[in-house]
Write a structure and sequence with these properties.
single chain; alpha/beta
Length: about 260
């Protein structure tokens, strides 16, 4: 037996909801009003339920928009995470899942070989942060360098860094998988410097944290050494090779004239 259809919302009330931009209240109002009439709800209870539907709908829309803005790579959450198969101790996983470290503006580095679930675990933490009404931005080192590079071209680096640091959690994924150029290193430094003690940063890498900085410098140096020599600049005079110093030759003694 199908349930009776909810009555249509009065036209005047529908116009008011549209004008006040209350789409979720307008959608739930027919069912709520029918239930309230049948069960003889108090008017204050009716108002509470309708406003709760609007708030709940707006919160859900905000979370969807934040997930879209964060640009997650796969959408993996804790629903597909197997804590017993991870090398991270389970008490550590539980402590990180509370997200208290994000509220304290602390940072997180997850290091390990490829295929050990680093990105999965951090992405699940990021989804959990959005569910807790936090804002997240997700980058790889390459995409971060592209973002800062575009801002550098039009002179808006400060605005770009401020926009990134407006999020509560900033994730930089898979550092060390590819050679690091000077642009990527500069972009990473700018975000780290701006977010220091103000935002939380989560990093995944195949390099141990104690060797992370040294590994980045080594890869950057290797890439610089592999570059072909630059052609000489126009109007540039090559430096002449200086010959080694030689002992001065003895000067001939002048001849004396005899009168």
């Amino acid at each position: 037996m199908s349930s009776p259809k909810a009555p249509v919302l009065p036209e005047e009330l529908d116009k008011i909801c549209r004008r006040m931009r209350l789409p979720y209240l307008r959608k739930a109002a027919p069912d709520v009003l029918a239930t309230a009439r049948a069960q003889r709800w108090d008017p204050a209870e009716v108002l509470r339920v309708l406003l709760s539907e609007e708030v709940s709908g707006r919160d859900s829309a905000t979370r969807r928009q934040r997930r879209k803005t964060a640009n997650f790579p796969t959408g993996k959450t804790f629903s597909s995470w197997l804590p017993e198969e991870s090398t991270i101790p389970e008490p550590t996983q539980n402590a990180l899942s509370t997200l208290e470290w994000v509220g304290r503006h602390e940072n997180l580095v997850v290091a390990g070989a490829s295929g050990t679930g680093k990105s999965h675990f951090v992405e699940a933490l990021a989804h959990s942060a959005i569910e807790n009404d936090l804002r997240v931005s997700w980058f790889t080192l390459e995409s971060l360098a592209n973002t800062i590079g575009k801002a550098k071209a039009d002179g808006s680096i400060a605005r770009a860094v401020a926009r990134i640091c407006s999020c509560d959690l900033i994730v930089c994924d898979d550092i060390g998988m590819l050679p690091v150029g000077p642009e990527a290193a500069e972009a990473f430094y700018r975000v780290i410097d701006a977010a220091y003690e103000r935002r939380s940063i989560a990093v995944t890498s195949n390099i141990h944290p104690s060797s992370l900085g040294r590994g980045l410098r080594r890869r950057r140096r290797r890439r610089r050494d592999d570059r072909p020599p630059r052609p000489p600049r126009r109007g540039h005079r090559p430096q002449r090779r200086q010959l080694p110093a030689q002992e001065p030759r003895p000067r001939p003694r002048p001849r004396r004239r005899h009168n």
